[in-house]
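Researcher: Go.
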Amino acid sequence: MSFGDPNNPYGPPPQQPPAAPGYGYPQQAPPGVPPQQGYGYPQQPAYPGYPGGNQMVPQSMPGLLVTARVFLFIISAVQILAGLAWLYVAAIANDVSDAADDLSSTSDDPFSAIGEGGDIAAGVLVLIALIALGLAALSITLGVKFSKGGQGIRITTVVYGALGTIVGVIGLFVGLDSGLATAVIFPLLWVVFGGIITAAPVVPSGTAWFNRPRY
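Model: Structure:
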């Protein structure tokens, strides 16, 4: 009786072929191939650029940034009103200058000096009005860009808020020196607004918001 006969029922059982490997690389990877986990896909790294590296991506704007955004819109409204007021005063100065020129007969009379002074005042007031309206446009732009802006909006907001805070502090000292309570309230509000606008993009929640990935 020969055990080499494959049809012999008393012989040893035939050898089974090796099992096929599962999905991905087998446990022993070929030389030069890094070992894989699961179904052969490497583990995804955490999003870079956030404090700690493992913090969750913020899904909504932090409360301090929302407050700073509201303050930017309030400041823009004040700047628009101030710009329109300066334009109105400039128009009055221009009318006074024109009336003085009409009454002037020589270059040495008082009306001539009033006319020249009115022209200069009107030009200065128009320049101030344009600066106020330009700052209002900047305030609105920064507030609107908070939702999708990146590092450029963040840095511009910090610089803008810091400059506004400095102006408010100067006005506060002037108001305190005058001794008038009404001269202190507006600069104090300006300092508070500027301080919050400056701090909101700098705190960790604000930094994470401006560093978040955008798809």
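Model: Helices lie at 63-103, 110-145, 151-178, 182-199, 204-211.
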